[in-house]
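Practice problem: predict the structure.
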Amino acid sequence: MFKKDKDKEQEKEEVAKPDIEITKNFESQEKKTEDDYRQLWDKYLRLQADFDNYRKRSFKERAEFIKFANEGLIMELLNILDNFERGVKAADQKKDFDLLHQGVDMISKQLHSLLQAKGLDRIKALGMKFDPHQHEALEVVEDDNTDVDIVEEEMQPGYTLNGRIIRPAKVKVRRPKEKLTPADPAENEEILEENQEDEEIDKEG
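Answer:
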């Protein structure tokens, strides 16, 4: 009897043993999953922080770049400004208008040369065929001696920067005079009849 009870107890232990093993494996797997999740979450937080720092740093660098982007151009313009001030001072000391004129002309050439080297080009206007994409007509005159719209006068120069129009030229345009076509006789008769009917209505009224 005692042996049978012992066998039963052993059977129970053998049956319970797989359940315990399964439970332990499950708990171990659950713990591993939690650890993996925690590691992934920590990695995500670090990546998020790194990205925020990168974004802030990029924004700051961009702001600094925009702030000082024209530093090189301004340094070159300062040289021209120095020449201009020296020219004005020399002309003032000598009271020489011709000297001042020469100095201003020289400064103008230096400035145009610098801007052209930076990609600035003047739009051709005077004597050219009117182009609404490059020219802005401020005044238009009619002329019997032309067949196309021609720029007669440049009131303000226009410019392109590296091929892109940044300011159209403001111009005066000479265009062909509009020729009036002769009226249709039938149309004239119709107008005359309408006028006569209006006069008769006025008399009756």
